[in-house]
Amino acid sequence: MNKQRGALNRKSLAILLIVAVAIAVAAAAFIGARPGKEPAVKPPEEIEDYLFWEAKKLTDFKLIGGGNKTLGPDDLKGKWSFIFFGYINCPDVCPLTMGVLGKTFNLIEKDPAAYQEIQGIFISVDPKRDTPELVKEYASYFSSKITGVTGELAQLEAFSRQMSALYTIHPKEAQASGDDYQVTHNSTVFLVDPQGRLYGRFPPPQLPQEIAGVFLKIRTFYNERVKK
Amino acid sequence: MIKIFSQVLAALTLGFLASNAWANGDIQVKDAWMPTAPPGVKVMAAYLEIKNTGKQQQVLTGVTSPAFGKIEIHRSVIQGNVARMDHQKELAIPANASVLLQQGGLHLMLMDVKKPLASGDQVPMTFIFGNGEKIAATAIVRSGKMEGMEERGAMDHSGHGGHKH
Questions:
Q1: CA-to-CA distance for A58 and A52, rounded, in angstroms?
Q2: Of A1, A184, B4, B120, which cross-links B84 as Cys (Cβ 3.0–4.6 Å)?
Q3: ipTM tops 0.90
């Protein structure tokens, strides 16, 4: 009798163990899962908030920089791109963010391998007032690593939609008639990975130490993950 | 160590700047400065503190400067990561209080710069108040790029109580 009960217990224990293991495996898969084709690796907590749930390929855009040079998806490949939307007639938030970005790049310079892989892109969403030449001068003032571009309205709108960085010009009629208008814009610094995918973001208010530190951690995580 | 150093530096900078004050009666304009603008850029911003030591509210109604065509009071507002500028017709300084104009918030928008300004330049400005008082002050131009970024960054940080990280 005792022997039988012992056997039964052993059997149910084994079943219980199998069920427990199955639940644990399922839970681990669920927690670690990120949609998309990426291997299921959970990013470290300190960078998780800065990453998009799913890296999104940026496609089919054409922006215009100094000397009428175009900037398209191929120019994002092989580099980490820090992208900021703004306009030159914005005397407070835009120069502040550009200054932060310039300082961030100076901090990243201490890691030569990482420094080689970064570029900044300032996108003026005010092409009526900001010519490609002016935008180029403006951007490079803050860092030689920052390129300034603008573009046709339709191109700017389509690209900012891809980035989820919508902007509005107000009052709308003023843009047609004169120069006295303002642009409401997203003041996030976006991070695009070397495959040209929208990968992370640094929301305002930004600090150079914060962006530089988090970026280096993101890059380490990304490199380890890609090499696997 | 670095932190202590930068705090000392910030304190020294503040101490130095504190001597830059211009007053008329109960109103004082302090530490006015403006960052340099990239070449070709016609708009700039100025930052300062206005202190009211009196028992009555004072209202800043206008600012003029021979270096600029037009000056307006603006406030940058960032809501849900979207930045916009609100034009303020005037700026109230409550009794016994200070109003700080600083990066990422209240600022003077300086338009139509007459000639390019370089770091170290001194720009005369006149502040006009609702009671008819005027204060003549001088704003110092400082690099808009890197210098002082640490100190300013630190101050910005404490200024934004809602900073998440």
A1: 13
A2: A184
A3: no
